[in-house]
Design a protein that fits this description.
Strand order of the largest sheet: 1-2
Strand content: under 5%
Number of helices: 18
Number of domains: 1
Number of strands: 2
CATH architecture: Up-down Bundle
Helix content: over 70%
Radius of gyration: 21 Å
Bound molecules: phenylalanine
Structural class: mainly alpha
CATH topology: Amino acid/polyamine transporter I
Shape: globular
Order of helices and strands: EEHHHHHHHHHHHHHHHHHH
Length: about 450
């Protein structure tokens, strides 16, 4: 029997109504600002096409592997991130991994909410006609800077985002927003394809395309690998218990491998297409100087108004686009807030309302320095507060979380049990040897290598 939030009430804990419901919900968490804001930023900062290729390799070999591992652990134990470890290895420090996941979610949400707030602000800006006529590079870059350094504007936007997220979670209508997103996300996909076509047909699109797609392998180093793996985890919502939780609602009859495959595929497509919009547009815009260019955190907000002004009906188009971006961001913020909230409900017996409200207040306060770090307060700007939070929580902590998942699955739970779980719903697990090699060897080694690089770099 299916209830209104797509989770059936067959068992008291609930389960997804169907495999498709899971794929949509997991893609809803995965697709968001990670694909459309963070991916192009990483490409721009890490050498262009060489990053794109490294990213694809990371998704295929590492992201997919960890995603399947999290879903399998979740489905087997049917628990929240702390409960997963308690069930398989009770009364050991392993549950700390679950706790770190909760902390990571809260910290990511604090600055993710700021960027989601920018999307809300831009939606408002478009409605009120801030971008009229042909938008130039200087004007667009300046508009972003003025907006991001205005404390009242960014606070208000952050407040709105955290407020909506708290509202959705406290009312337990997460399923509602997912249903809503299910209708709208295909539309976002179509708009992105349309904008990508427009971008590649701009005069002088080739320079941008070749930056994005023609790799210069001499630019490859371990730093590129580090950011590519971190981007894969961030974009696919891995390493922090979200897919563990979502996996716990998957039916034993469903095929975990193809479900994971679909989520990886849709998430990667959105990121790749966004790059096809951003780079040709950026390089083809008069006034843009690739040599004297410093990548700003607001890259996507500087570029999208330009390409939108170049399509017929740009005003309406831009409005719809930023609205959909906002919805995509909200499905991610909701999935991030659900992690701490369900922990407080399960373990501390708080009411859903109290958990959501207190977590929300804390996240808003924690978001303030990030909100002020794009020019609002010189000290935070100098530190690059938001960038530091993103480095620590969005890259390092996710990699650490994913490493623990690998170790736990391989050495504590054992691969043969995982295969048994995966085989339910997929008796001929064709990718078995590929996955086993990756989870045992490739993924942990790659993660350890990048973490060592980082420690060396810091010391
Ligand atoms: N994956 C989301 C995105 O790409 C962000 C996110 C990260 C959501 C981690 C949940 C957990 O926007």
């Amino acid at each position: 029997m299916e209830t209104k939030n797509g989770i059936s009430s067959a068992s008291s804990r609930g389960a997804w109504g169907s495999k498709i419901a899971f794929i949509f919900a997991a893609s809803g968490s995965a697709i968001g600002l990670g694909n459309m804001w963070r991916f192009p930023l990483n490409v721009a900062k890490n050498g262009g096409a060489v990053f794109v290729i490294t990213y694809l390799v990371a998704v295929f070999f590492i992201g997919f592997t960890i995603m399947l591992a999290e879903m399998t652990l979740g489905r087997h134990t049917q628990k929240n991130p702390v409960g997963v470890f308690e069930t398989i290895k009770p009364r050991t420090p392993w549950k700390l991994v679950g706790f770190t996941a909760i902390v990571t979610c809260v910290c990511i949400l604090s600055y993710y909410g700021v960027v989601a707030g920018w999307a809300a602000g831009y939606f408002f800006k478009i409605i009120t006609g801030s971008f009229k006529g042909d938008v130039t590079w200087e004007a667009s870059a300046e508009t972003f800077l003025q907006f991001a350094k205005n404390p009242m504007a960014v606070f208000l936007c952050l407040f709105v985002i955290v407020g909506i997220t708290v509202f959705v979670i406290s009312k337990g209508v997460k399923g509602g927003i997912e249903k809503f997103a299910k209708l709208l996300m295909p539309l976002l996909f179509i708009l992105i394809i349309f904008l990508a076509v427009r971008a590649v047909t701009l005069p002088a699109a080739e320079t941008g395309l070749s930056f994005y797609l023609k790799p210069d392998f001499s630019k490859f180093d371990i730093e590129v690998l580090f950011f590519a793996v971190g981007q894969a985890f961030f974009s696919m919502s891995l390493g922090m218990g979200i897919l563990l939780t979502y996996g716990s609602y998957i039916s034993k009859r469903d095929n975990l491998v193809s479900s994971a495959g679909w989520v990886c595929f849709s998430d990667t497509m959105v990121a790749l297409l966004t790059g096809i919009i951003i780079f040709p547009t950026l390089f083809a815009t008069p006034g843009f100087d690739p040599k004297g260019f410093e990548v700003s955190t607001g890259l996507m907000f500087q570029v999208f108004p330009i390409i939108i002004s170049k399509v017929p009906g740009g005003f309406v188009f831009g409005m719809i686009f930023f609205f959909l971006l906002l919805v995509a961001a909200l499905t991610s913020t909701v999935s991030l807030l659900e992690v701490p909230v369900s922990y407080f409900i399960d373990e501390k017996k708080w009411s859903r309302k109290k958990a959501a409200l207190l977590a929300g207040i804390f996240i808003f306060l924690l978001g303030i320095p990030s909100a002020l770090s794009e020019g609002g307060v010189p000290l935070f700007t100098k530190w690059g507060f938001m960038g530091k939070m993103d480095l620590i929580f969005g890259n390092i902590m996710l990699a650490v979380g994913a490493l623990f998942i690998c170790i736990f699955l391989v050495y504590i739970w054992k691969v043969k049990n995982a295969i048994k779980e995966i085989s339910q719903g997929n008796p001929r697990f064709k990718l078995g040897p590929f996955w086993v090699f990756n989870i045992k060897v490739l993924a942990p080694l790659a993660i350890i290598a990048i973490l060592i690089f980082l420690i060396k770099d810091i010391l």
